[in-house]
């Protein structure tokens, strides 16, 4: 099981030029976990045969991501 915790929006200064452009043009959001790992990069490491689940502890602020193997 993989567990990623405490996702927060990535600071605008940490975004690439292309990410900034997408953020302003289509309101894209970028998240990092407590270790600074990018959400989109983490998804590339998931196996296709796993169950993915968000666990939100606060309204409008998801705090933990859990991937459980099936």
If you had to describe this structure to a student in words, what would you say it looks like?
The chain is an alpha+beta fold and 70 residues long. It has one domain. Helix content is 21%, strand content 29%. The chain has two helices and five strands. It has a three-stranded antiparallel β-sheet, with no helix packed on it. The chain has a two-stranded antiparallel ribbon with strand order 2-3.
Average pLDDT metric: 78
Q: In sequence order, what are the helices and strands, one letter per element?
A: EEHEHEE
Structural class: alpha+beta
Report how far apart the termini are: 10 Å
**Biggest sheet: strand arrangement:** 1-5-4
Number of domain units: 1
Number of continuous helical runs: 2
- Bin the helical content: 10-25%
> Which blocks of ≥5 consecutive residues have pLDDT under 50?
none
Strands, total number: 5
- What is the approximate shape? globular
Radius of gyration, in Å, reads 13 Å
Proportion of β residues? Answer: 25-35%
- Describe the biggest sheet? 3 strands, antiparallel
């Amino acid at each position: 099981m993989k567990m990623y915790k405490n996702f927060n929006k990535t600071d605008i200064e940490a975004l690439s030029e292309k990410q900034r452009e997408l953020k302003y043009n289509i309101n894209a959001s970028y998240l990092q976990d407590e270790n600074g790992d990018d959400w989109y990069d983490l998804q590339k490491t998931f196996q296709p045969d796993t169950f993915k689940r968000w666990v939100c502890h606060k309204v409008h602020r998801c705090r933990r991501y859990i991937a459980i193997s099936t």
